[in-house]
Amino acid sequence: MGKNILIVGASGEIGSAIAEVLTEKGYQLILHYNQSRESIHELQKKVQEESILSVLQADLTNEAEIESFLSRIVFPVDAIIFAGGTAHYGLFQETTIREMEDLLHLHVQAPWRITRHLLPDMLQRERGKIIFITSIWGDKGASNEVIYSSVKGAQNSFVKALAKEVAASGIAVNAISPGFIETKMNRHLSAAEKEALLAEIPANRAGKPSDVAHAAAFLLGEDAGYIHGEILHIDGGW
């Protein structure tokens, strides 16, 4: 397995945790972020300078910025980890068309475009890894998160289908489906809502970004070489 890893959404808590774990294991990173430059600065302080090949900013809901982002990837990419994205909380009938389109672009169309751009080189070299960080709601669905559940379900389907198409060429496509993880995405929950969620989780705790990060590192490694098209649930048995 090569050492150059593109992390899309590296400024988020899960993306940053993945970056930290991977640098400890000797990987070199190409980091993408959209708005949280401060989080990238904090990440750069935590890892060795030579571990970061480049830092690229792009709003992946914007077609022109996707094109610009792809043109600025100058290093060979051995693996892609899609760890970014935002959720939307609210009633389906009150969701605006713009909110729908942004989530569709960010979680589905941008990963399609990025993968399509980088896949030919992987196919030529007959090696590569593609990992999506999806969500438990992509399997189960969630009230008040209908659009988010829809696009995460689309990611799961993409993983399963593309894995079948490229496995014979030495490329593994998999996903990690986190349950309730302590990140800012879940901070809209009240204390009572959080307590009710934790009561449903057999492990009796929320997950940590590092739980997801270590799973991603495993899927990148040689020991996961025969895993294709899987959705690995990191949810404490929820």
- Please state roughly what percent of the residues sit in beta strands, choosing from under 5%, 5-15%, 15-25%, 25-35%, 35-45% or over 45%: 15-25%
Helix percent reads 40-55%
From the 3D structure, determine the CATH topology: Rossmann fold
What is the helix tally? 8
Determine the N-to-C terminus distance: 32 Å
Total discrete domains:
1
N to C succession of SSEs: EHEHEHEHEHHEHHE
**What is the CATH superfamily?**
NAD(P)-binding Rossmann-like Domain
**Strands ordered across the widest β-sheet:** 3-2-1-4-5-6-7
Largest sheet: 7 strands, parallel
Q: Which architecture does the CATH hierarchy give at level 2?
A: 3-Layer(aba) Sandwich
Secondary-structure class: alpha/beta
- Low confidence ranges: none
- Name of the top-level CATH class: Alpha Beta
Beta-strand segment tally: 7
Compute the gyration radius: what is it?
A: 17 Å
**Whole-number average pLDDT?**
93
